[in-house]
Each structure stands twice: as C-alpha cells, then as structure tokens.
From TrEMBL:
GO terms for molecular function: DNA-binding transcription factor activity; sequence-specific DNA binding. This is Transcriptional regulator, LysR family. It comes from the Bacteria. Residues 4-61 form the HTH lysR-type domain. Gene3D superfamilies: Periplasmic binding protein-like II (3.40.190.10), Winged helix-like DNA-binding domain superfamily/Winged helix DNA-binding domain (1.10.10.10). Keywords: DNA-binding, Transcription, Transcription regulation. One of its GO terms (biological process) is positive regulation of gene expression. Coiled coil: none annotated. PANTHER family: TRANSCRIPTIONAL ACTIVATOR PROTEIN LYSR.
Amino acid sequence: MRSLNHRQMLAFRAVMISGSMTAAGRILNITQPAVTRLVRDLEADLGLTLFIRKWSSVRPTAEAVALFREVEKYFEAMERVRENAREMREKSEGRLRIAAMSTLSSGALPETIRRYRQKEPDMDFFIHSDNSVHILDALQRSEFSIGLGRVPPERTDIDHVEMPVSTAICLLPKAHPLAKQDVISVHDLDGQPFISLGVSSLLRMQIEAEMTAAGVQPGRTAQTLYSNTVPSYVSAGLGISIADIFSVIGVDLDRIAIRPFTPAIEFRFSAIFPAIGRSRGGEFFSKVFHDVVRDQVENINRLFTK
C-alpha cells in the first residue's frame, strides 16, 4: 500500500462535509473531476469503496463514515503541529485547546474566556465539547491544554483540580403547579412528564437511582443528550427535569422556574491537566474558571434564598 496522499484526504474530507463532489471542488478551489479523481485514487490505495455513486449524487458507505473519524483526528493533529510551531516561533503560548462537558459551553466557558482575555488579550481558544470519558482519554494523550470534566476518585494518576461543588436543580414550566413549591422532592416527579438526559450521563444515572429507591415512575419522557438543551424543552411545556445548574446559566428565567431538588445530588467536576504537565496558560485558565464557577453557583443559590 502506498503512503496516503494529503490532497486525497483533503478531497475526501471536503466531500464528507459538503455532501457532493461539486461542492467539495468549490471548497478546495479545484474542479469537480479533480475531486473525483483524488477520491478514486484514495479508494484504490485503501482498497475500500467510500462512496456509492448514483448519477450526480454520492452517498458515503459505512467504511467512509468510520474513516472520516480517523481523518478528522489527522487534521486536528496537523492543526496542533501548526499551533506548536507558531508558539515556538513566537516564544509564547498563543492558543488554549479546551475539552469540556457541553453543559459548561453555554455559560461558564464564555465568561471564563472573557475574564481571561482581560489579563491575556492575545490568547486564542479552541473549544471541544465531549463527555468526561473521552475528555480524560484525550488529556492522557495530551491532545488538549486543559479539560473540564468528571474525574473518578479512583483515578489518582490524573492531575486535576476540583471545581466548586454544586447540586442538581429542578426545572419546571413557569405555570406548572409544582412551581408553587419552594422545594421539589423526588416523590413529586411521580407521573410527571419528564425531560431526561442522555443514557451516558452520570447525572441521569443518579436521578434514576433516586427514583428507583423512592418507587417513583415519571410520566411520558423526552430524552435530550445535552443538559444545556433542557431549558428549551421545559419552557415549551414538555415536562419537568432535573439538571445541573450550568444548564440554566444565561437562560431567560421568565420562561421557566427553577427550584432546589431533594435528595441533594452533587455535581462534581475538575479542571484536568494533560499527561505532559501543566502549561502556564492552562493553569491560569483553571484559576479563572474556578472563580467563574464559584460565582455562578453562588448566584443560583441566591435565587433560592430570596
């Protein structure tokens, strides 16, 4: 097998992203026949059929979808090489690559970046949202400057700093009868339409464990993968939900009600450093982020004491 050609992978990636040979040609500023030739050469080199062709349309095969994941890793690695070269050339750390749980991306992260740039205005940021399992794996391979996710207590091999601890809250439509209560208990969820988190969510597992222990069975459910999308479903009147406090940061609380939830379910996560060690920028980011999380937790808790 010949060495893979960078231009072939550029063409393959462009077709996968754009959905057609013609659109890929426009993206790469080459002709459609040139794209087709590059993709056919890649198929020949790999011994795989990557696209099913029918008239002017193409449909990726299962092999193409699997290969695309690996090709994306290749381009991400190339980007890191460029970043590292620039930093060495400029004798500075000019970009932070951050892997974070998606619930932090809509409120806590933007505020942290805003505060960070008040001290370091020339820093660029790359944000990648993922679950904690993948974040830990990526940090062990030193693919990011810092990660924000859950660290199992048993993982004493991981360098991390725990962030301020919060507890899960209940989200309800504003006009829901339960919104008249000061606190929502697990027993209140019985028979209620419920917005649940994705099956890989630790918080979902903890909520379901509390429901099972209390003999509670919710009503009709809708499942959403990310907790920061929960407020949209709740405000539409589709049900109530239990989520982390970061899911409501920046949300219009005129459209939903939030209440403390019992029994308390702790939401713990950490700033995680790569296996190669802490960078100056990553360590400073963790300190700024810690202050942002502390402030946001206090602000939500303050709403419950009014």
